[in-house]
Amino acid sequence: MRRLSLNTLGEVPKSSRPDLDPSQLTTGVVHLGIGGFHRAHQAVHTADAMTATGDTRWAISAVTQRSPRVRDQLQPQDGLYALALRDGTDTRVRVVPSVREILDGPSEAEEVLNRIADPAVRVVTLTVTEKAYRLHPATQRLDTGDSEIRADAAGRPPGTVVGRIAAGLRRRRGTDAGPLAVISCDNLADNGALLRQAVTDYCGLLPDGEALVEWIEEQVTFPCTMVDRIVPATTEANRTEVTSTLGLRDEATVLAEPFSQWFVQDDFRGPRPAWERAGARLVPDVRPYELTKLRTLNACHSLLAYLGGLAGIDTIAEAVEIDDLAGAARRLAESEVRPTLPPAEGIDHHDYVETTLHRFANPALRHTTSQVASDGSRKIGPRLLGTVTDSLGQSNAPEMATLVVAAWLRQVLVQRTDDGLALEVNDPAAPTMLQATEGRTDVASLRPALAAAGIPDALLEDSRFTGRVEGWYAELDRAGVRATVRTAVR
Ligand SMILES: NC(=O)c1ccc[n+]([C@@H]2O[C@H](COP(=O)([O-])OP(=O)(O)OC[C@H]3O[C@@H](n4cnc5c(N)ncnc54)[C@H](O)[C@@H]3O)[C@@H](O)[C@H]2O)c1
Ligand SMILES: O=P(O)(O)OC[C@@H](O)[C@@H](O)[C@H](O)[C@H](O)CO
């Protein structure tokens, strides 16, 4: 079957064809980490902003970070791909035109730096997963002892995200290409500030680092963002379905829910796409929205992923249909998270929780518990530990938050469901945690495991945290998920 491409675009059914002519767009954005989420979120808001304004300077040069797979899917299609928005049995398919170039970061490192230094480029966005920032979990500062970071700083073509950004900024400084905004779109609280600090820490390892930091302060902003759209990993079934809708083969299909939200801190020194004309909110302070989303939506997602996974449940939609699991998510969100949140204008927290659980229940997404559970050691902090710390500070008991931590620990240490089936564990800290526990899975092994995962000392030394985690862990071991949660939500 013929592939989707510029040559075949005219054969796409009219209802799925883009409003923009892709060949008329020029590049103004570099994106690092062209995974599913970018294709379903920022690339779409950016296409819609160009359509709304007629300002076609914002096509995207997208960079793969570790494997050329997405480049190999998109390049034969001239960067075109279909987004399938699915809600229950409804599906809407649209071809997205904004990705105009795909570079493979590892093998085309020089080109990537040239793009970042290009005066036409005014925005760099990134979606690279939490672990790619290489932050020390306890300090949330760049782990400058990381061997890959040190190798980048020693002058090899940069392979890490922070190394690549710093090298690109250094080149841009050399070409005097003008101000730039570097926008993290990953699920991290204060993502812009964390990235700025990580780049600054990295510059500290470079011989010309001080001058580069001075230039960055003058020319580069790091707006914080809150991004929200559920985008599961694409399956072959998704590709086949979209192929039959388009009448053309699309290897780079992405699937998402219809809901999409984007809050961006309005901190730009140069031009940018008019995202506010395409559903985004440009606000002076993103923090209340970001905290609300991370501590509510993402924390409930993790709750369903860890407890659901241990209970042998494959998808988030199936997990949230179990009343006690939904009840535990509500208890976490309403009783523990809500008192810790600053007011976020326009957000009613109760409605937010109910909308979130309704979105999770979308059966068409088939978002797996194992995908959401991945990289737990990097997600537990931003999603749950802030709630734990703030709750303890307010003398509120973080029962559900610690239950999630215990469930994560059981996944990593025991790696079996309650029925004894093997659980796939994908966590960069898992080897160190298993080494620290020497293969033991009893309650006494939890503190070494938490320490190895980089949980901050203040929590490790607080028995109100460790005691609860140990209690829940023992209960999960004794009674299993379903009975533990049933008792917990009574
Ligand atoms: N998928 C979603 O529903 C969703 C929603 C909101 C935010 N996000 C954010 O987007 C991120 C990416 O999600 P996705 O669905 O696109 O995932 P994905 O697996 O499709 O893509 C991940 C991207 O990150 C890169 N990456 C992974 N590990 C890396 C590392 N160690 N160093 C450098 N690059 C690395 C990969 O190369 C790839 O380009 C998430 O981690 C999250 O922070 C995702
Ligand atoms: O993408 P991750 O791996 O950081 O987290 C998995 C999900 O919790 C997350 O992607 C949500 O679907 C998303 O944050 C919704 O906006």
Automatic annotation (TrEMBL):
Region feature Disordered, mapped onto this chain: 1-24
Domain of life of the source: Bacteria
Record EC number: 1.1.1.17
Pfam families, per database record: Mannitol_dh, Mannitol_dh_C
Mannitol dehydrogenase C-terminal domain mapped to chain residues: 285-442
Record-linked PANTHER family: MANNITOL DEHYDROGENASE 2-RELATED, MANNITOL DEHYDROGENASE DSF1-RELATED
Name used for this protein in its record: Mannitol-1-phosphate 5-dehydrogenase
Organism of derivation: Halosaccharopolyspora lacisalsi
